[in-house]
Amino acid sequence: MHQVFRAAAACALILLAWPTAGQTPAPLRAFNPHPEGAPATEALRSFAAAVQAGTQGRYRIQFLPHAAIGEQALALQMLKAGEIDVAGIDADPLSDTIPTLEAFHLPFLFSGAAHMFRHLDGPMGQRFAEKLKASGYVVLGWYNGGGSYFYCAEKPITRQSDMAGLRVRVRNVDAHAEMVRLLGAVPVTMPDKEVLEGFRSSKIDCAEGTMVDYEAGALYKAARYMLLDQHMISPEALVVSTRLWNRLGAEDQRAFLDAGKASALLMRRLWEQRMSAARTALTKEGVQFSPVADFSPYVRRMAPLYKKYTAHPDVRGDLLTIISEQ
Questions:
Q1: What one-character DSSP code corresponds to residue 86?
Q2: 3-class SS at 223?
Q3: Engineering a disulfide at 145: which of 236, 251, 264, 302 sits with its beta carbon 3.0 to 4.6 angstroms away?
Q4: What are the beta bridge partners of residue 289?
Q5: Contacts for 211 with CB less than 8 Å, ≥ 6 apart
Q6: What are the tens digits of pLDDT across the range 258-315?
Q7: First CA to last CA across the chain, in angstroms?
């Protein structure tokens, strides 16, 4: 009964949004998991303005509160059902649709964001977009989801062997936990909101996350040593529903594509600026940064994890392509 009601509600929303002759379409509904002021949020607002200008006002975008939906997996379901029209989505939930994207969860895979975007802006990203379109989502641009670093409370990590036996907080992602185990440490799954208390209560010795989140969450107050390894870099996709896409005319589709491309490039610039500002602030707070002199000991330990993914026929080719171009 609940599923029937949900389907009926979705249909009602679509019918309400569909314009009759002479009417301007109702505002499109957009979801973004980031708060106001975040680079992705600013880029999405720029996208909305460009869409309105590019379609001469035929399409306008209104934003749902960033906490209105919660799990991004639910946002994907709502996109497919036509309950929302535009969204920014992490690679993690998208990999349930495209197994190849699971390769983008692997550690020490990309040398930097530019390396990742060479693939996403090229033939590999185009293949991803074609598969996503067949599943109900049209990719208009790839955002920078940020690079992850290790940061610790008691001592700096200056080489791979320093991680032996440390309790390292990770998100609930299998590849993250396996990475920590392969590095000789102990993974501890913990929600973002509990990390600071985890350090204060000595439940964890280290954690991993973006430098921006580390600075914004004041985690440096409990963990002042950061390894500049950028062990994982992940993308986010700016997508619209195929329900919306299929009712756009060719001129409006071009306007959406142009706005998406410009939005992606803007987001990447804003992210780099935010990263630079975070590092400057953290340096003033006394955070000690340790560069990685040699990545090879870290990469060698990832061999079992890479082997697991290269065994997947839908992942092997793209993963080997990325590795070969490091």
A1: E
A2: coil
A3: 236
A4: 226
A5: 146, 147, 149, 226, 275, 278, 279, 282
A6: 999 999 999 999 999 999 999 999 999 999 999 998 999 999 999 999 988 888 877 8
A7: 52
